[in-house]
Structure formats: structure tokens, C-alpha cells
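Recall that a protein's primary structure is simply its ordered list of amino acids. Everything else, from secondary elements to tertiary packing, is in principle encoded there. The following example makes that idea concrete.
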Amino acid sequence: MRVEYINPFTEAAYNILSQVLDGEIKRGDLYLKSNCTSVMGVAAIVGLAGDVEGRVLFDMSPDTALKIASAMNQEQLTVLDELVRATITELANLITAQAVTKLHDLGFRFDLTPPALFTGEKMEISNNNMEALIVPMDLPQGRIEINVAIRDRAN
């Protein structure tokens, strides 16, 4: 996986999270996963197609999702309802849009799928024989992991 694909997502996540949440955002150490990835309970997935293929997954616990949605909506939310799901989906949309804009500026061309949100226990996401780079972000609301699995499209 090329680093040119990763940096825009890392930068966009930091920028957007800093704008919509109060408190310090810390990026943890990056690490690779080559097989299935366990999901923490709430995962927004955006697919990529064009010059590249793959997906970006925004992964967090239900508690973190509730705290992030509460902060973004400026109200205390206690149930993983439609408002929370829509807020987390929009957060994924904001981060991905900013990253894709940076990648387009670098000459990469591809399309996105709308974010899909999955919730549940003991979920795993297959990396489809692609390495996934995990970018952990520690927030006052908890941890979110940006899981990026992108490769050049085979012609």
C-alpha cells in the first residue's frame, strides 16, 4: 500500500475530529493487519473504486460512538438510535471527502460509495487479500481506528 493513500486519510481524520470535537486528539502508532479485522462494535465503511480499489473503515466501540455523536449534536445521547447512526455516518463522510479531495489534487481519480454503517458484536471485516493499515486516534470520547485497505487497481 502506498503512503500517498494513507496520509490524506490520517490528516483528514485529525482535521475533522479536531473541528467537531472538543479536546486533544492523539494519533497512535500505525500498524498493519493482513487478514480479517475484528470490529469494535460500530463501523462505518466507505468503498473506493477507480484508479484504486479498496475501502476505508472507521471503527469504534458503541460507547465511543455515543460520546462522539453526543458531542457533535451538543446533547446527551444514550441509545444507539438513528441520530447516532446518522452522525457517525456523516463523520465518516466528512473525513473521507476531505481525504479524497487531497488525493484528487495529487492526481488520483476514483469514486466513493456512500458510507454504510454496521453495528454488532463479534463482527469481522475481510481485507480481501489486501493489507490494511490501522491508524488509531485517541479522543476524549474514546478511541477510533481508521482502517485503510487500498491498492492500485489491477488492469
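Residues 82-105 form the longest helix (24 residues). Residues 12 and 97 are 8 Å apart (CA to CA).
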